[in-house]
């Protein structure tokens, strides 16, 4: 039986994890996040396609391309959470379950970070639990795709 494919997308500046503001984001790198996701997905019988981009259009293209191939999308849109109606629209357009992840608790940060356009398209949101939020998102997604 083929494993359901989950697209795991990471937005701008997440390639700087481990060096960028470690007091907020911790010392784990994006490679560490990918390893955690791969391990968790394997445990859950899922396949992942893990990607990162600093470019809004590239993220949107990846979301559009996953229609018909992926069972769901896990996304840490980073700064695009608060600005990208286009990313939100792409997530709505593919009509897949979406789990939004944030390493920090966006509700305990600057007021402009309290609103996420992406959340409007998300089945669920996990924030403030560090990189373990990705593992939790994969566990939630495994349950969601098993129901379909």
Give your account of this protein's structure.
- The chain contains 5 helices and 5 strands, in the order E-H-H-E-H-E-H-E-E-H.
- It is of the alpha/beta class and 148 residues long.
- It has a 5-stranded parallel β-sheet with strand order 2-1-3-4-5, sandwiched between helices.
- It is globular.
- The model has no long low-confidence stretch (mean pLDDT 93).
Which class best fits the helix and strand makeup? alpha/beta
- Amount of beta strand: 15-25%
Instruction: Name the overall outline.
Output: globular
Helix content: 25-40%
The tally of beta strands, per DSSP, is: 5
Overall average pLDDT: 93
Q: Spans of 5+ residues with little confidence (pLDDT < 50)?
A: none
- Terminal CA distance: 15 Å
Radius of gyration: 14 Å
List the secondary-structure elements in sequence, H or E.
EHHEHEHEEH
**Sheet bearing the most strands, described?**
5 strands, parallel
Spatial arrangement of strands, main beta sheet: 2-1-3-4-5
Number of alpha- plus pi-helical segments: 5
Quickly describe the structure.
The chain contains 5 helices and 5 strands; from the N terminus they run βααβαβαββα. It is an alpha/beta fold.
């Amino acid at each position: 039986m083929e494993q359901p494919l989950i697209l795991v997308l990471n937005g701008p500046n997440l390639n700087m994890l481990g060096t960028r503001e470690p007091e907020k984001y911790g010392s784990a790198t994006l490679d560490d996040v990918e390893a955690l996701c791969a391990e968790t997905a394997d445990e859950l019988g899922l396949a992942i396609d893990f990607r990162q981009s600093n470019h809004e259009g590239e993220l949107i293209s990846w979301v559009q391309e996953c229609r018909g191939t992926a069972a769901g999308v896990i996304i840490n849109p980073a700064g695009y959470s608060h600005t990208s109606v286009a990313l939100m629209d792409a997530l709505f357009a593919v009509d897949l379950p979406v789990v939004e992840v944030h390493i920090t608790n966006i509700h305990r940060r600057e007021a402009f970070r309290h609103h996420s356009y992406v959340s409007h398209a998300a089945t669920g949101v996990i924030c403030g639990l560090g990189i373990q939020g990705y593992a939790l998102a994969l566990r939630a997604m495994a349950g969601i795709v098993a129901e379909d």
